[in-house]
Amino acid sequence: MALKASCAHCKKTFSAPDEYRGRKVECPSCGRRFVVRTDQEIQAEADQEESLKRKRDEDRDKLALIERMQARGGKRPGRPYYEEFQTGSEGVRNYNPRAPSRFLRFRNLSDFLVLGAYVELLLVALGVGLLVYLWISGILESASVLLVLIVGWLVVGVGLYLFFKYLGELAFLLADIGDQQNDVVQLLLDVRENTDA
């Protein structure tokens, strides 16, 4: 059975035997050699190239958006991985393990909350010391009242300590998860670029 093919150079259409599909032949019109393919195969290849081009353009748009967001945040983005570690290749241009954290506010909040927790412990110790001093000096005469005040002070103080400490740990965990997610996004962009190229 014959198939309809067209020359890749002069675009003339002719018929060729089916067994010539995928082989190089000479064009009867211009004499140049080309691989015999049907119009459908050529169209499918053009469609595939067009979809790859669209994906690359979408990735470029995403990279431009990421760069705009970094610039808007006022932070200078770190150098690309291949420049910083001198690999000499642009295969890894988004992922940078030494880039600063994007969640510095959460990290600062975490530090502040943990510091507040330890200040609370110091206040608990000072409060217990003050209650003992008041009992020794005779202002508080009843030992049972002293015991109730100390236990109440300890319960409130330790409760606030745990609250601030775990809230600080949660803020740190959220910052860590955000940075890890950002690293994964950057690595996936690199993988996609390398796969499309």
Would you kindly provide a written description of the structure presented here, covering whatever features stand out?
By secondary structure, the chain is mainly alpha-helical. Among the domains are: 1-37; 104-196. Helix content is 64%, strand content 8%. The protein is built from four helices and four strands, in the order E-E-E-E-H-H-H-H. A two-stranded antiparallel ribbon has the order 1-2. Strands 3-4 form a two-stranded antiparallel ribbon. Strand 3 (24-26) and strand 4 form a beta hairpin. It starts with a strand and ends with a helix.
Class based on secondary structure composition and strand pairing = mainly alpha
Number of alpha- plus pi-helical segments: 4
Strand order of the largest sheet: 1-2
Please count the beta strands (DSSP E, at least 2 residues each).
4
List low-confidence stretches: none
Helix content bin: 55-70%
Bulk shape:
rod-shaped
Question: For the report, how would you describe the main beta sheet?
Answer: 2 strands, antiparallel
| Distance separating the two termini | 37 Å
Strand percentage, roughly? 5-15%
C-alpha Rg (nearest Å): 35 Å
Secondary-structure element order, N to C: EEEEHHHH
Mean pLDDT: 79
Oligomer: single chain
List key phrases describing it:
single chain; 197 residues; two-stranded antiparallel sheet; 4 helices; 4 strands; 8% strand
Quick structural summary:
By secondary structure, the chain is mostly helical. Among the domains are: 1-37; 104-196. 64% of the residues lie in helices and 8% in strands.
